[in-house]
Amino acid sequence: MIFSSLEFFVFFAIVLLFLVTARGQQTKKLFLLAASYFFYGYWDWRFTFLMLTMTVVNYGLGLRVEHAVNRHVKKLSLVTAIIFNLGVLGFFKYYNFFIDSANAAIQSVNFSAAFPQLDIILPVGISFITFQVMAYVIDIYRGVTASAETFWDFALLTAFFPQLVAGPILKAKQFLPELQKKIVIRRQNLLIGGQIFLLGLFRKVIVADRLALYVDTVFDQPQDFSSTTTWLAVIAYAVQIYCDFSGYSDMAIGTAKCLGYDIPINFNLPYLSRSITEFWRRWHISLSTWLREYLYIPLGGNRKGKVRQYVNLWLVMLLGGLWHGASWNFVLWGALHGTALATHKFYADAIRSHIRLPKLFYNGLTWAVTFLFVCTTWVFFRAANFSDAFVVLQSMYGWPLADTASGINWYASGLLIAFPGVIVADYLGNCLNQGHYIQLNRFSHWFWLSFWLLGLLFLAPQNPQPFVYFQF
Questions:
Q1: 153-193 pLDDT, tens per residue?
Q2: Between the CA of residue 185 and those of 57, 258, 307, 421, what are the distances in Å?
Q3: Which of 430, 436, 4 lies closest to 207, judged by CA?
Q4: pLDDT > 70: what percent of the chain?
Q5: Beta carbons of 275 and 344 less than 8 angstroms apart
Q6: How far, in Å, CA of 389 to CA of 383, rounded?
Q7: Tens digits of per-residue pLDDT, 96-143?
Q8: Rounded to whole angstroms, how far apart are CA atoms 330 and 318?
Q9: Active site residue: 67, 72, 284, 324, which one?
Q10: Whole-number mean pLDDT of the chain?
């Protein structure tokens, strides 16, 4: 079940109807928990047992950490939680990846032995769930937050359906206080949440899904396209993945708002960034914050000298790349971003103060370099393998033969829709995220709704695409 499907609208209407008519906060909360498990089990009901197991184990270990008098017991409980969670993630997501890599290494030295592969189905959103429950136990250990008041509160924190499968990653200190609110469906929340949801739906269906048709065509056969068309495909993918993921985040935020809950924004105009450091403060904010708080700082952060700081930045992004997927493409993507972060930090510390350029020119230059780097590294994120990635890069930066018009007209029409749409969606989304929702009278409500419905009817592609981040 995806947010842009008819099944979801029916499901959400039933949820709202029950919450409007039901009496008793505990009844409403338990129903919301049951609805979240139904939502997750819609893909494969067997994985609800995995989520329940992770919930029970982490809730129990969280209580153990909080109430243990002996510091050794407290630390042992934390380590157990980390090993358990990473073990679950490692088995489902990385077992076959590491087995393939090991077998390739064995074959390279002419050994005939090989490790067996397993037929493993990757649970949807397993990376997000793992980081979320692991942060809960770590924050209790650090004294940042108390354990959930009840098991049901923690279960709802883990399974809350708006952000369950693709984030934003919720921390206990952010969302447990939200669960203490009374569940009351208010007209103002429906208005604000509905507007945010529609903006996300616009990004996803009208922009991202349409551009995916063009991007897939080029990346499936990169050797068949000219340099110009390849550049357009890479830029189109940069727009696609942004609108796809930020669209999901907006729909998650809007859905939660309709229910009366506030969850944090996950994107803040990332393509306006003038450095790679700024980009990661604006892109996938919940993940970059998680990596900083639970990996970068424990590794030493910037407390152990400049060289160690640069190494920590590189290592964190390397692991962040691996978190995105069991592929060496993602590892290289993370390593490149880690190198860029370390390089920018060195530049800011040692070189920036010696550069004298007009401010407008400097800002334009730094934006262009950042955007070019981000787009170039997206090639490794999107390409199926290293071979295809290097074909795309060769087409972009090599000395291609004479360009042909093949495919360029497709991209021109797609980008004519995409770029104005992204600009409008970003502006309105930024206003909504700042709390400035659009006041509408009765006529404007119908006009606004008709505008979106007509846009979805005439501009959306016939076959909706799955959300990119569902695979993570």
A1: 999 999 999 988 777 888 888 889 888 888 888 888 888 88
A2: 32, 7, 53, 30
A3: 4
A4: 83
A5: yes
A6: 5
A7: 777 877 777 777 666 666 677 777 777 888 888 999 999 999 999 998
A8: 8
A9: 324
A10: 83
- Residue 52: predicted pLDDT: 94
Reply yes or no on whether 324 is catalytic: yes
pLDDT over 50 at 405, yes or no: no
Rg (CA), the chain: 23
Single-letter code of the amino acid located at 140: I
Q: In which residue are the tokens 């700081």 written?
A: 309
pTM, whole model, 2 decimals? 0.86
How far apart (Å, rounded) are the C-alpha atoms in residues 249 and 16? 20
Q: Which amino acid is at 202?
A: F
Distance CA 284, CA 255 (A): 19
Alpha carbon distance 429, 422 (integer Å)? 10
Burial annotation 54-73 (CB, 10 A radius, 16+ → b, else e):
bbebbbebbbbbbebeeeee
How far, in Å, CA of 129 to CA of 167, rounded? 9
